[in-house]
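Incident log, structure service

09:12 report received: a user says their structure output differs between two submissions of the same chain.
09:20 pulled the input from the user's history:
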Amino acid sequence: MSKIEKSDADWKAQLTPEQYRVTRQHGTERAFTGEYWNHEADGVYVCVCCKAPLFDSLHKFDAHCGWPSFNQPLSKSAPVAESHDNSHGMVRTEVHCEHCGAHLGHVFNDGPPPTGLRYCINSASIDFQERKV
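09:34 re-ran on a clean worker, output below:
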């Protein structure tokens, strides 16, 4: 998948106001309010902006933080990229979709084995595709 570039007006037309605020303006939804924070179905979570596969439900866990949490991306080739985030007086690692630049959330070093990572992802930045049996 190649880089996706759209105008601000195109993103606003495609996304809900909350999806736009989170993915294009680096927003964060309130804890325990997103559609997927306690979602337990089997499948793949994709970028809400470009539909790139990002996370597998097999790697989802309840971090008791109020956001969907995963201990790793779908695969090593999943377009989950990282960058430094010094906003709001904190030093964090932001995760975003490498294909379209959508802000997804942040990754922390307090997750379960085997990775020890917690990808804390906004529900507004992902869609769910049920696994076909």
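09:41 both user submissions now match this output. Likely a transient worker issue. Closing.
09:42 reviewer note: The chain has one domain: 8-130. The first strand starts at residue 43 and ends at 47.
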